[in-house]
Amino acid sequence: QVQLRESGPGLGKPSETLSLTCSVSGDSVSSRSYYWGWIRQPPGKGLEWIGFMYYSGSTLYNPSLESRVTISVDESKNQFSLKVTSVTAADTALYYCARLNGPGHYFDSWGQGTLVTVSS
Amino acid sequence: QSALTQPASVSGSPGQSITISCAGTSRDLGTYNLVSWYQHHPGKAPKLIIYEVIKRPSGVSDRFSGSKSGNTASLTISGLQAEDGADYYCWSYVGSNTWVFGGGTTLTVL
């Protein structure tokens, strides 16, 4: 049974870079069957896809966020990470990491989420 | 960017059936059979309940079913139970290496 767990600072300042990590157990981030992704939910709003990456290092991002986000993998730690640059209050959200089934394009496992607040 | 449109809220009484729609266009839902549905109780991880339009993951109640007609996908919940009260989201590939969530629907079990 795959498990994902998000970690990272819960508070950031405007204009800084937000960094989060997703630790994976029960599967390998090097798996050829899955993509590994990030989704967020601002307070009171719906889910928003941020992006995902494949074991090869190839990435796909939401066009609305592409200029500010980077997803990378650390195979040695079986983790993948998210960086969001130049954050504003609009980046305040509950951030989830998840595993995407490649052929079917669906998220079959999710982390519990981690709240990030951007405030001066 | 493509958008998937869901009703903001639906409601039903225990035992009844409800349907949540997810409307796209001929370029996205009308082209791809890659719609999935997620149940989200606040404070918990979202849960996959339908994938590839009609398929149900192991362990998900058969009270949940999915369908698609033209450019609109639908999630039907039959025999409503109190614990079905949650937010529901559709998700789909919409072409050009882009994926999108619907805006979400809050289900209230009366």
Description:
The complex is a heterodimer of chains A (120) and B (110). Chain A has 120 residues and is mainly beta. Chain A has strands spanning 3-7, 11-12, 18-25, 34-41, 48-53, 59-61, 69-74, 79-84, 93-101, 106-110, 114-118. Chain A is globular, with a radius of gyration of 13 Å. Chain A starts with a strand and ends with a strand. In chain A, 38% of the residues are buried. In chain B, strands 1, 3, 4, 7, 8 and 9 form a 6-stranded mixed sheet that branches. Chain B is globular. The termini of chain B are far apart. The model of chain B has no long low-confidence stretch (mean pLDDT 95).
Condensed summary:
By secondary structure, chain A is mainly beta. Helix content of chain A is about 0%, strand content about 50%. In chain A, strands 2, 4, 5, 6, 9, 10 and 11 form a seven-stranded mixed β-sheet that branches. A four-stranded antiparallel β-sheet of chain A has the order 1-3-8-7, with no helix packed on it.
List the helices and strands and how they pair.
The complex is a heterodimer of chains A (120) and B (110).
Chain A: E1 3-7, E2 11-12, E3 18-25, E4 34-41, E5 48-53, E6 59-61, E7 69-74, E8 79-84, E9 93-101, E10 106-110, E11 114-118
Parallel strand pairs in A: 2-11
Antiparallel strand pairs in A: 1-3, 3-8, 4-5, 4-9, 5-6, 7-8, 9-10, 9-11
Chain B: E1 9-12, E2 18-23, E3 36-40, E4 47-50, E5 64-69, E6 72-77, E7 86-95, E8 98-101, E9 105-109
Parallel strand pairs in B: 1-9
Antiparallel strand pairs in B: 2-6, 3-4, 3-7, 5-6, 7-8, 7-9
